[in-house]
Amino acid sequence: MRSSLILLVVAVFPSLCSAQSIDSIRLTKDYDGLLFPAFADTIEGEFAVKFYYNYEWIKDVKIIQRQSNSRLAEVLQKSLVDVRLEPLQLNRKSIVLVNTISASTTTRAQDAIASYSVSGYISDSQSGEKISGATIQMPGTKFATTSSSNGFFTLKLPEGMYEILVNAVGMSGLTKRLRVYADQVVDIEMFESVTELDEIIISGLASKQLSSLDIGLQTISTQSLKSMPPLLGEVDIIRSVLSLPGVTTVGEGASGFNVRGGNVDQNLIVVDNAPLFNSSHLFGLFSVVNSEAISSLSLQKGTLPARYGGRLASVMDISLQDGMDQDLYAEASIGVISSKLKISSPIIKDKMSIVTTGRFAYPSWVLGFVPDQNVSSSKAGFYDATLKAAYRISSKDYLSFSTLFGGDSFRFGSDTTYSWSSRMASLQWLHNFSQDFSSKLSVAYSRGDNVVSGKSFANEFDLKSFIGSTGINYEFFWNKWKQHNIEFGLQSNFYKIGRGDLDPTNESSGIQPFSIPNERGAESSFYFSDAITLTQALSISFGVRLSAFAYLGNGLKRFYQENSPINEASYVETQNVSGNSVQSFFINPEPRFALKFSIDNESSIKLGYNRNFQYLSLLSNTMAVSPIDTWKLSDNFLAPQSNDQASLGYFRNFSNSAYEVSVESYYKIVSSVTQYKEGARLVLNDFIERELLMGKGKSYGVEFYAKKNRGDLTGWISYTYSRSLVLVKGDYEEETLSNGEYFPSNFDKPHDLSLVANYSLTPKFSVSGNFFYSTGRPITYPESIYVVDGYVVADYSEINQSRIPDYHRLDLSFNYKMLAKKNRRFERSWSAGVYNVYARRNPFSVFFKPEYQGSFPQAYKLSVLGTAIPYFAINFKLKP
Amino acid sequence: MRYIIFFSLLLISCVDKILIEGPSVQPKLVVDAWFTNVADFNSVRLSKSAPFSNNYPFVVFNEPVSGATVTVYSQDKSRAISFSEDTTGVYKTSEIAEVGESYFLEVQGPGGQLYRSSIQKVEQPVSIESLDFTFDKVDDIINTTSGGYQTIPRYYFNVSANINDPEENQNFYLWKSIGIFEYLTIPPGDSPCNFCKCWSTISPLVGSVNVSSDQYINGSSFSVKVGSILYDRSTGFLTRLYQFSITGSAFQYWNAISNQQRNTGTIFDPAPGNIAGNIVSVGQENEEILGYFTTASVSYNKLLINRGSEARKLNVNEPNLIPPGDGDCRLLYRNSTHIKPVDFQ
């Protein structure tokens, strides 16, 4: 069976170079009657083409050429039709003669044709990793599907000969010829998109953008991650995501990222189905997920598919490598900031495997660059580790266990240490009930912890906070009907949040213990979605997610006077309530819709709409998300956050996907978003409801993206023009911000430009560079100052009406990579470069304080990493 | 207690002083009005805000507004207390507030525009049970001339007040403290010295607003830090403490100012915000008026510390400070007098 399949299924690549295609070759001489082998020899000598064929099949074939100046393609077709062969151009030089469809099947009436099931796994030829989300299409037909998260796909096809086009993120697209005559298994191996076969690559990313229904989907392949200039020797996922259109940050030293005008807490980051709460190392300079551990990463910033929910702005879905089908290898890297180790090992060949990574960092080296005594005496460090073990029980069952933990410690001077950590573990079970029905069951636990430790004499304390989530997901994928791609499932998460626990850490400490009771809540959702291929050009997807949230509280119920603002003055009482009672309950339908219209093979238009709800917020009114921020569940004072987003995009590829261009625009109406009263104190505030407000908002923007996939120079330019505005207009003055008018959010940066380029000098050496420019973040400047009761007070009336100076930065990196060869057991690469080449002191913030008590406040600019930082990192790979 | 956590973090950072121009705005009227059951505290200070511009650090930013008509009315308008201009822009009255009564303020500006406050109640006073102190050694960090720093041990008198918070209602406190330091000088030569001892008044004793609510401690006794006095002389030191029982909304206002004062200007700081007062421009609701009309009942307590003898009791040596030999003590220490305050008797 296998061998016959190999004979039947001939992998070919579509012709790309029209100047040399067999269609364009015209035969000026007369070859009529010549035997095929002789003809082939002549043509090979005359034109830069080569024929590949089975000699037995064509040794007696005579060339049929009716007239001179015929097209080669025409001549070949006519000559070969009797022996049921047809020419396929493999690349600009190669023509393969393959078996053609039998005449009898093609003439049968469509409804009389028996359908067979074609299924299989799509995997990466090098790593053996299963590829999820690959699109499988039959050009010219309505048949198409995508691979499930375990790489499995299934299709019902009538008997016949098909050309299958397979595309996946970061992989070169490939075409297979397939003759369907029975139910069959076709395993497809794909190649990473940057290989020696440069001229015939179809970028997976581009074709996926064109053909997938998802709008606002951004993907970075592990390959393009690797070719990005590393930050201080580390390639980082969140740093890389920041170079994509629509993704911004409030500044260096700010954890997290902002997608299309959304808060940092509106991004769901999932690693193998477990949410991640503290995603940053060193205040956002690095991500907690080591890029070496990742098998795939996607960022969904537009219409979220129905299976994702719980956050408003985006979903970053990360899968860890499972090492399945890989030989044993180890990789290590040593840099100025961190060192990493990765081991990938099979346990039972093709059945069970394990991948583990570890990273340890010593960034104090960077701190030494800062001329400030307090900073250069500070200490910082972080670590993270991942492990994924996978077991392929049978062709129907796949089991994997993933875990990740990471932590940070940052000591400023000798006073205060900030530490934070993340832990997650998930168990995933993929099961195929049949060829068109599969499922994924996952159980996940995740926790984020923050600790602030005060070390000053007689005031030693620990202030702890945490968020924990335990969840179960059961997802189903159903492809019974050929035009439908149905997904449905159930997801439940139980949250437990500690918002503050203050304890003295020393007997002589004067700190009084204080604790805010932990709060709990449960979120459950059911979702259903169907992606329908209506015609070859038009497909739609609709879905609905029904989310419900029960706030179980912290045992306390607060009462305030009615018809008055919620504050200290209107407080009535606190009642103790049973810890198991539902104190608030929310249920909301979340519709999702997407439409794709393919104008032609190279361009498409997509349209999307969705509504999202979010039942937890990260309380942060500081300049950036920091380790003192805590999570809070929605309750009777803090409504769930919600928004509606509509987006429209145009995608086009040029020169056979050598260039991709897209324009996407979006408009987002935020019906409720967590805001804070002016000057709100959130740390250890037991009465947090008095500080919170519900705001509305709107964000809109247009994102331009142009990418060059092939050649010595590769990279992309992205430019976004966007606005993000907030409106807080309560019933009372103190519940109104900025006079009840729209004001820019903290991350309203209208112009955002990223340039990422990689230039191969030789196959071994390359130079890469990044350039970033963005409008300075909004900030509130004091309008005026005045005196009350002898104190000088600054008057900050208009929120975010000024801006800090613009941000721009250039990084350069010089990279060497030993060429990969099949039997090479040792590989080495290194990179050296400079971060912030022209040493711009990009401001993080501008703040005001008097030089001494009672004097006029002065403005100060705070720059994080305000100097050029050189780095060096070396990487080894060993295969025993 | 949450205030103890004083975050200061600069990360991998550089701080540069920069010159910026704030948005150009019209000056706003600032009303700093107090009406209590103690006449000394009853004053309305009218001034104008100054545009922010740190190009001119010596700008006059407290321009008084003279010639206004200032009246405090009881809630039912049965009582009208008019304040007359005492010094330029400062309006005073000898009348006092009645505890339990509610009042509002009306100011008619020199241009005729009327400004009115919200109604504020005079809350019940709460007595200050006692003032006491601890004598603590602290390792102070001193910047050295070479750019580094060193720690040196120093002793402080930490004065605190003990208050029994009443259980039946919510209480909001604002404290104003005054410190009177006794100073000695040495007469030049053998001449008799009339002004070799003086008393310098520092008001306020601490440079920031001191407010609290009984949110965490309702009905129990608590202590509040009043001031921290360096043990650098062996002379007497007097603390006068005035405790204002204020309304919940006044607490919100003064607490917001306190929060602004505590900001250390780092990335952990809350984003700065507007501090809304309780005074509006009648008929011109868009005109923002800064400041607050605060009503309160005031209680008082004091504490005299003989710093030398207290330190000796704890076997701490007297500070090695020779009084200056200039003769007239009053010229050396600000806001001082040679008349011995009554509490030093």
UniProtKB/TrEMBL annotation, chain A:
One of its GO terms (biological process) is siderophore transmembrane transport. Keywords: Receptor, Signal. GO terms for molecular function: siderophore uptake transmembrane transporter activity. Residues 236-311 form the TonB-dependent receptor plug domain. It holds the Pfam family Plug. The lineage of its organism: Bacteria, Pseudomonadati, Bacteroidota, Cytophagia, Cytophagales. It comes from Chryseotalea sanaruensis. InterPro entries: CarboxyPept-like_regulatory, Plug_dom, Plug_dom_sf, TonB-dep_rcpt-like. Residues 1-19 form the signal peptide. The keyword Signal applies. This is TonB-dependent receptor. GO terms for cellular component: cell outer membrane. The keyword Signal applies. It comes from the Bacteria.
UniProtKB/TrEMBL annotation, chain B:
This is DUF4249 domain-containing protein. It comes from Chryseotalea sanaruensis. The lineage of its organism: Bacteria, Pseudomonadati, Bacteroidota, Cytophagia, Cytophagales.
